[in-house]
Amino acid sequence: MTTGLMATMFASASLVGVSGTAATAGPYTGTVPTSTVCKAQNVERGDNGRIAVRIVADGNAEPRGNVTVRVVKNVGDFRYINTKDYDGGVIIFKTPDLDKRGKYQVTCRFDRKPNSVWKDSNNTDSFWVTRRN
Q1: How far apart are CA 50 and CA 120, in angstroms?
Q2: Per-residue pLDDT tens digits for 19-76
């Protein structure tokens, strides 16, 4: 009986000594890569530009941080910059009405929250402002 009691105590002591840790996306700051998906569609003159931004990462957790969108007309006639908080999903940015025809360059940048496991990322796209039909 004493031997059985001792074996039970050793078995439970070994189970108590091993404790699990919570699962995380990565053990160090800035180790999980992200991808910025930036989509802009052509618009007619006088309409506002719409840019859709989504941040994609491995795993089932959503990256958290800020998304900054910068829209510049290639000739330098127009500049738009806006920043929004990102907590997952798709964010839509709307520019003011665009009156000048031509090509516009879009840069989307994701900046992670401080001490986050996510990496920063960015991407570019472009769209055209065309004349009204």
Answers
A1: 23
A2: 444 445 556 777 899 999 999 999 999 999 999 999 999 888 899 999 999 999 977 7
Tokens at residue 118, please?
């996510």
Residue 19 tokens, joined: 């404790």
Please choose, from the candidates 13, 37, 41, the residue with its C-alpha nearest in 3D space to the C-alpha of residue 104.
41
pTM of the model: 0.76
The whole-angstrom separation of Cα 48 and Cα 5 is 77
Name 110's bridge partners: 67, 121
Beta strands in the chain (DSSP E): 34-40, 43-44, 48-57, 65-73, 79-86, 90-97, 102-112, 121-130
Q: What are the beta bridge partners of residue 97?
A: 48
